[in-house]
Amino acid sequence: QAQLVESGGGLVQPGDSLSLSCVGSGRTFSPYTMAWFRQVPGKEREFVAASSRYATHTYYSDSVKGRFTISRDKAKNTLYLRMDSLKPEDTGVYYCAADRQIITSSIRDRTQYAWWGQGTQVAVSS
After folding, report:
1. What pLDDT digit, counting tens, does each position of 31-77 carry?
2. Which residues contact 56 (CB under 8 A, 6 or more apart)?
3. Confidence bin at 2 (pLDDT 50/70/90)
4. DSSP for 72-118?
5. Phi/psi of residue 10, each to 5°?
6. Cα 29–26–21 angle (5° rounding)?
7. Confidence band of 1 (pLDDT split at 50, 70, 90)
8. 90: closest CA among 46, 51, 31?
9. Measuring CA to CA, which residue among 108, 16, 14 is closest to residue 61?
10. Would you state the pLDDT for residue 102?
11. Could you tell me the CA-to-CA distances from 8 to 19, 63, 81, 104 in Å, in that order?
């Protein structure tokens, strides 16, 4: 049974940095598009960043471009999200997602991802 497990969330101050990890198990995720989404109560889960199959391309939402960096380690079957210059509006539960069949035009669409982690909480507050 394939599984994704996120870690690394926490409470930080505005301007701080934080790194999230998503460890995959049960299958090799290199051929999968993998992404980070986030959600706050009362709002839909929104796209943050994605790494295409075999990590050939990366994609970011406009709100995090230039501050966040997505990467993956094939040997460790792990996806990362480095978050710099954090803002209060970055607060939310961050989810890792994966799917093998996503086309580029749908990479920001949460409904296209079949595999999800349980989420890790990130809070940015002074």
Report:
1. 999 999 999 999 999 999 999 999 999 999 999 999 999 999 999 99
2. none
3. confident
4. EETTTTEEEEEE-S--GGG-EEEEEEEESS--GGGTT-GGG--EE--
5. 170, -175
6. 55
7. confident
8. 46
9. 108
10. 93
11. 6, 21, 10, 28
Q: What is the DSSP letter of 31?
A: T
Length of the chain equals 126
Beta strands 120-124; 10-12: pairing state: parallel
pLDDT at 99: 96
At residue 10 the predicted structure's pLDDT band, cuts being 50, 70 and 90, is: very high
77 DSSP β-pair partners: none
Element (H or E) spanning 6, and its range? strand 3-7
Residue type, 125: S
Please state, in angstroms and rounded to a whole number, the distance separating the CA atoms of residues 105 and 109: 9
Q: What is the per-residue DSSP string for 46-80? A: EEEEEE-GGG--EEE-TTTTTTEEEEEETTTTEEE
